User: Which sequence fits this backbone?
């Protein structure tokens, strides 16, 4: 069973207007939310084979903070420039290119692509908030990944009290 965990990057800082969008760091709220969500994933026993992150600083930092809480080896994180403001179709292409040895993958990216992908996966959540997580399972091989062959697994976000 393949497990796909989508994570929108944690809250980014806007206090340095001269920085390029790609270089914006996490805000203090994001620096707190990412490890919090990593701890929640750890409590669920999630152990990703690969964490694929956008190369944007805020996504990369989110991936690193979550990986630290999951005690994932550093080589688990792969940076993928195509995830920077990726469309849902780009994310699907990334999933279809994964080797079959990977069972659990985390994608760390950005809106609006993340919201679009969640919608296509059948998620009726309206908006994936910063540091929000939407996860599905699929019995298909990666090369055959199909939006119609997924089952909802869970949805979580920093302000969730459940």
Assistant:
């Amino acid at each position: 069973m393949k497990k796909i965990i989508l994570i929108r990057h944690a809250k980014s800082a806007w206090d340095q207007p001269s920085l390029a969008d790609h270089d914006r760091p996490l805000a203090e709220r994001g620096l707190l939310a990412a490890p919090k969500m990593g701890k929640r994933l750890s409590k669920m026993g999630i152990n990703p084979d690969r964490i694929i992150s956008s190369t944007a600083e805020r996504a990369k930092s989110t991936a690193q903070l979550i990986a630290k809480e999951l005690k994932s080896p550093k080589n688990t994180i792969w940076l993928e420039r195509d995830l920077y403001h990726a469309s849902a179709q780009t994310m699907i292409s990334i999933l279809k290119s994964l080797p079959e040895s990977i069972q659990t993958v985390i994608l760390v990216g950005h809106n609006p692509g993340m919201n679009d992908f969640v919608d296509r996966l059948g998620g009726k959540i309206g908006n994936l908030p910063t540091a929000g997580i939407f996860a599905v399972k699929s019995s298909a091989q990666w090369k055959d990944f199909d939006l119609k062959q997924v089952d909802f697994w869970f949805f979580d976000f920093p302000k969730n009290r459940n």
